């Protein structure tokens, strides 16, 4: 098959830009671990027996959370840039400087300020270490009491976000160009893969819910659909370019839901607002109905955000828990069973990735459609 | 001795509820498709949306149980 047309100039340029961007982050093997970290690791091994037991919940939650470094394989991590806003301005360094410590045991000193990382959060380090060798003050519940700088680091999720932007731009610029080039002709290459999906969004999502004004909202619906779908799929890839839990991150889903809320509210016509503030019911029912309707404006996008977050995070946790069974039973004979189940769940998650993108888009269309509906 | 959290029981109850809900949706959709095979695609879409709503409730429970 001739695929040369896929790699045209614009796409190449995007890929080069992203490769250069990634090249800025150096791969830092933890073999560089110096003497002081060796000491701290030996101190960690001296901890009580219960601490060393494999904790499946902790393992799964650690892997669905955002991270300052990107795990490649074994002891290899890609250190991502840490950007902090402190009292003396911006401070940047490579997260590899923490030597993959996540227990506040390695102190990084920059511009006279000392930082530690504990559970993927960066704190100002304490002057002296506590009895566990941690440069942080902990309360009874093991929460860190130290102050935190404003952390705007490029984390694993941010990188995945940028990567997905590059992938989506590459695909859609290519498709848009081929529509220009062979207008009126049958689709070619990647265009013939994407066209049925665009038509699916138009005919099954936009038209039934938005009526004849659907064209205005097609750009938003298509963007949201492909953004969620591509990122769900990227999250299912277990090795390097994927693996981040971007659509299972509340910050991302809340922003997406907020966009739907803004579109709904700004496009709401007089029938929509009348339905909320002056519905056709006896006046004494307004005391109950109006607050309920006002709450309803906000619960719809909140439910959208939580649905996407919970579905994707639950899928990731399920896969990790099944793989984690091998370590819980500590036996190689569990591995075939758990891998078979994990594979099965991963295939179901491929379906869920599409369904969740579809559900988010169709509900967005439904809410916007309710706001622009002419009258009952 | 049994150890664990009550949250797990709550998550289990939510799973029972969601299972019943999705089972009902699936069986009704099957009946609908059997009676009117030509409407299969429309019924499937509606079924998926309804199933997603039920599933979302179960996942809210999981999130609450995790927190």
Report the principal-axis shape of chain A.
Answer: globular
Name the beta content range of chain A: 5-15%
Look up the CATH topology of chain B.
F1FO ATP Synthase
Cα(first) to Cα(last) distance of chain A is 54 Å
- Taken in chain order, the helices and strands of chain B follow as HH
How many discrete domains of chain B? 1
What class do helices, strands and sheet pairing of chain A give? mainly alpha
Query: Would you report the number of β strands of chain A?
Result: 9
- What Rg of chain A, in angstroms, do the CA atoms define? 25 Å
Which stretches of chain B of 5+ consecutive residues score pLDDT under 50?
none
Report strand order across the widest sheet of chain A. 1-3-2
Major sheet characteristics of chain B:
none
Classification by helices and strands of chain B: mainly alpha
Largest sheet of chain A: 3 strands, antiparallel
Topology pattern of chain A, helix = H, strand = E: HEHHHEEEEEEEEHHHHHHH
- The radius of gyration over CA of chain B amounts to 16 Å
First-to-last CA distance of chain B: 25 Å
Number of helices of chain B: 2
β-sheet strand percentage of chain B: under 5%
CATH architecture of chain B: Up-down Bundle
Domain V-ATPase proteolipid subunit C-like (chain B): 7-67
Main location (chain B): membrane
InterPro entries (chain B): ATP_synth_csu_bac/chlpt, ATP_synth_F0_csu, ATP_synth_F0_csu_DDCD_BS, ATP_synth_F0_csu_sf, ATPase_proteolipid_c-like_dom, F/V-ATP_Csub_sf
Membrane topology (chain B): Multi-pass membrane protein
């Amino acid at each position: 098959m001739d695929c040369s047309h896929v790699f045209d100039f614009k796409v190449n340029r995007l890929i080069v830009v992203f490769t250069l961007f990634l090249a800025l982050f150096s791969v830092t093997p933890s073999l560089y671990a110096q003497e002081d970290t060796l000491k701290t690791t030996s101190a960690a091994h001296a901890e009580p027996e219960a601490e060393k037991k494999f904790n499946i919940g902790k393992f799964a939650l650690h892997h669905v959370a955002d991270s300052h470094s990107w795990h490649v394989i074994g002891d290899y991590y890609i250190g991502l840039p840490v950007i902090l806003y402190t009292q003396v301005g911006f401070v940047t360094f490579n997260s590899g400087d923490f030597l993959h410590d996540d227990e506040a045991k390695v102190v990084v000193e920059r511009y006279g300020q000392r930082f530690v990382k504990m559970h993927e959060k960066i704190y100002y380090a304490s002057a002296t270490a506590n009895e566990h060798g941690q440069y942080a003050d902990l309360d009874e519940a093991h929460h860190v009491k130290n102050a935190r700088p404003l952390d705007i680091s490029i984390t694993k999720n941010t990188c995945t976000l940028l990567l997905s932007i590059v992938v989506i731009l590459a695909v859609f610029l290519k498709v848009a160009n081929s529509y220009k080039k062979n207008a009126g002709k049958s689709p070619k290459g990647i265009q013939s893969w994407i066209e049925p999906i665009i038509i699916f969004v138009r005919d099954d999502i936009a038209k039934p819910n938005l009526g004849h004004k659907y064209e205005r909202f097609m750009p938003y619906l298509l963007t949201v659909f492909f953004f969620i779908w591509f990122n769900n799929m990227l999250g299912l890839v277990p090795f390097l370019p994927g693996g981040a839990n971007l659509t299972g991150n509340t910050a991302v889903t809340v922003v997406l839901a907020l966009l739907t809320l803004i579109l709904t509210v700004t496009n709401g016509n007089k029938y929509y607002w009348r339905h909320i503030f002056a519905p056709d019911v006896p006046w004494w029912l307004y005391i109950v109905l109006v607050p309920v309707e006002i709450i309803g404006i906000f619960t719809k996008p909140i439910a959208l955000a939580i649905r996407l977050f919970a579905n994707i995070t639950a899928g990731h946790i399920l896969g990790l828990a099944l793989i984690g069974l091998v370590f819980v039973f500590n036996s190689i004979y569990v591995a075939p069973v758990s891998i078979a189940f994990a594979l099965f769940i991963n295939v179901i998650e491929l379906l869920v990735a599409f369904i969740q993108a579809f559900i988010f888009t169709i509900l967005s269309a439904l809410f916007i459609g309710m706001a622009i509906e002419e009258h009952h | 001795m049994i150890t664990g959290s009550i949250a797990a029981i709550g998550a289990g109850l939510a799973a029972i509820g969601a299972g019943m809900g999705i089972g009902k949706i699936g069986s009704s959709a099957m009946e609908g498709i059997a009676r009117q095979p030509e409407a299969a695609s429309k019924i499937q879409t509606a079924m998926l949306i309804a199933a997603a709503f039920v599933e979302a409730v179960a996942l809210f429970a999981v999130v609450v149980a995790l927190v």
